[in-house]
Fold this sequence. Notes:
Layout: H1 3-19, H2 22-27, E1 29-37, E2 48-51, H3 53-66, E3 67-80, E4 83-94, E5 100-112, E6 115-123, H4 125-133, H5 137-142, E7 147-148, E8 156-157
Parallel strand pairs: 1-6
Antiparallel strand pairs: 1-2, 3-4, 4-5, 5-6, 7-8
Amino acid sequence: MTAGSNRQHVLDFLNVLYSGDIEGALERCTDDVEFLANAPIDILPHMGHRRGKAEMREMWDAVRARYSELRCEVPVLVAEDDKVSAFVRVFFRKSSNDRVVQFDIADFYTLHDGRITHIHQLLDSFDLVQQVLERDVGADLTGDGQIAIDRDSPPRRR
């Protein structure tokens, strides 16, 4: 496959996935597709490491259960041989209260014969957790947000 066709395969995959067609998205993946997104899975249980279509389906079903609407924008997509990288801006509407969670993802895809074999996602999980929990986690961790640092001793509150 050419880089141009792989680029189009990834765009088609994203369009189908974010339209809600999980089975259509899975058709664009190999049976042993592998997904990795480093994120705190106790708060974002649908993230982490997944392998195979069944685990991918479970992950995407969990996302669809939490969010009533999903959409994305892809301002940057670069393809070279069997590798495709995408900068994806994601918008999820929470089912519980209609608030929109917006975050950016760097997706790295590997394809074989036009089907996705690997997806590696990088995202600012701290920002995403704050939006999902609807609170300033940084302030929660530091009290008033002020930490005094002395190079010769551990950090302490002011």
